[in-house]
Amino acid sequence: MAGRRAALKAIDWTAFAERVPPNQRTMFNNLKTRSDAIAAKLTSLPEKPPAIDWSYYRSVVAKAGMVDEFEKKFSALKVPEPVDTQTAIINAQEEEANKTATAYIEASKARIAQYEKQLEKFKNMIPFDQMTIEDLNDTFPETKLDKEKHPYWPHKPIADL
Amino acid sequence: MLSRLVFVSASALKSSGPIGAGVVHASRCLHTSSQSLAPVPPLPEKGGKVRHGFIPEELFQLLYPKTGVTVFSLNQLDSSTSLFCKDYLKTGPYMLGAGLLLYMLSKEIYVINHETFAAASIGAVIIYGVKKFGPSVGAFADKLNEEKVAKAQEVKDVAMSSLVQATEDEKKEQWRVEGRAMLFDAKRNNVAMLLETNYRERLHMVTNEVKRRLDYQIALQDLNRRLEQEHMINWVEKSVISSITPQQEKESIAKCITDLKVLAKATQAKATA
């Protein structure tokens, strides 16, 4: 009977729901309904079946020894536990998910670093009314006028004016 | 005012460094290298102070030690007014200017001819125009510059706020990712619950089947007993009926009739009594 009652971890569905991003909400709802259905089915079944009243049967059934035989066989019977095939798969999935999650977090951190760098650049920028055009071109390289491509004033296509 | 016009042209041109802006005091060395060593000091808001539109204030300050200061005060106060000279007209350089003018006119160093009147009229018109329209033109130029700066500032603000927002969102997503363990706990729970349910169902099934078999035996027994009983009753009846001989039948019928007669008499007597 060992391992029959694998510890059911209490799941905080509200906290779980908070962490679900909006685009995966339907999947989460499906999971929740399925889990609730399974839990309901579990609680509706009593843990042990009602015991068989052997003495009553022994007194009623005429055939000698039949009840005793049944009783002996019944108590000797061991119902096999269902084999757990899925937990290993789930653990493997969890491993994979952890890996992708760490990769995602790395990428996210890199993105944050990038944003921070740009933010720093903006913060340390000199105010606009103290800039020269050179400073402007340094801070925002896209404002630099391409003198090779358009050698004559205004150094950009007329449509861009 | 004139200096503001200079600023408009300076911001419109692509000025390479401080050369070109009107009255900026260039604090950068001009000939060391093409790279700037320090940030450009901010351009002053207004140009240098001038008197009468074209004579710099510094000239007056320069001349005060040389030409002396005669305070020309409008109300006759005592000499303590000399301490508050800046409120009143200090006439030193003006004397110099007037003296120079008279000298040039009287010695005919500057000859008055028809061009003098042309210059005077043109000057009058120019001064009138500048005085009348100067401030508005200046304000217009300022507004143009303001708009440019405001646009750039807006771009910068939007960029900064979007960056902050993006950082916030990324952090939120990281927090979300941390909840992934819950998903797998839920799945494992489901699996465990399903297994448990299955096991209980099996137990129940075994018990029920055993019970059913025992009950079947009991029902079989009862059925057998009932059949035996009924058969025995039928058989007994049949044998009793078949054992009644005709002689016995006649006797019993006669007895019944006599009994009935007695009963009738009794009831009749009871009825009449």
From TrEMBL, chain A:
Which Pfam families does this UniProt record tie to the protein?
Mt_ATP-synt_D
Q: Does the keyword Membrane apply?
A: yes
Report the superkingdom from the record: Eukaryota
Record keywords: CF(0), Hydrogen ion transport, Ion transport, Membrane, Mitochondrion, Mitochondrion inner membrane, Transport
Query: Where is this protein found?
Result: Mitochondrion inner membrane
Give any single GO term for biological process.
Answer: proton motive force-driven ATP synthesis
Q: Which GO terms describe its molecular function?
A: proton transmembrane transporter activity
Q: GO CC: one term?
A: proton-transporting ATP synthase complex
Tell me if Iron-sulfur is a UniProt keyword of this record. no
Similarity comment: family membership: Belongs to the ATPase d subunit family.
Q: What is this protein called?
A: ATP synthase subunit d, mitochondrial
UniProt lists the gene as: ATP5PD
UniProtKB/TrEMBL annotation, chain B:
Pfam families the UniProt entry points to: Mt_ATP-synt_B
- Give the UniProt keywords, A-Z: Acetylation, CF(0), Hydrogen ion transport, Ion transport, Membrane, Mitochondrion, Mitochondrion inner membrane, Transit peptide, Transport
Q: Which family does it belong to?
A: Belongs to the eukaryotic ATPase B chain family.
Q: Indicate whether NAD appears among the record's keywords.
A: no
| Annotated GO MF terms | proton-transporting ATP synthase activity, rotational mechanism
By its UniProt entry, which InterPro entries does this protein fall under? ATP_synth_Bsub_B/MI25, ATP_synth_F0_suB
Organism this protein belongs to: Astatotilapia calliptera
Q: Where in the cell is it found?
A: Mitochondrion; Mitochondrion inner membrane
- GO terms for cellular component: mitochondrial inner membrane; proton-transporting ATP synthase complex
The entry describes its oligomerization and partners as: Component of the ATP synthase complex composed at least of ATP5F1A/subunit alpha, ATP5F1B/subunit beta, ATP5MC1/subunit c (homooctomer), MT-ATP6/subunit a, MT-ATP8/subunit 8, ATP5ME/subunit e, ATP5MF/subunit f, ATP5MG/subunit g, ATP5MK/subunit k, ATP5MJ/subunit j, ATP5F1C/subunit gamma, ATP5F1D/subunit delta, ATP5F1E/subunit epsilon, ATP5PF/subunit F6, ATP5PB/subunit b, ATP5PD/subunit d, ATP5PO/subunit OSCP. F-type ATPases have 2 components, CF(1) - the catalytic core - and CF(0) - the membrane proton channel. CF(1) and CF(0) have multiple subunits.
- Protein name as annotated: ATP synthase subunit b
This molecule's function is given as: Subunit b, of the mitochondrial membrane ATP synthase complex (F(1)F(0) ATP synthase or Complex V) that produces ATP from ADP in the presence of a proton gradient across the membrane which is generated by electron transport complexes of the respiratory chain. ATP synthase complex consist of a soluble F(1) head domain - the catalytic core - and a membrane F(1) domain - the membrane proton channel. These two domains are linked by a central stalk rotating inside the F(1) region and a stationary peripheral stalk.
The superkingdom of the source organism is Eukaryota
Major subcellular site: mitochondrion
Q: Which gene name does the record give?
A: ATP5PB
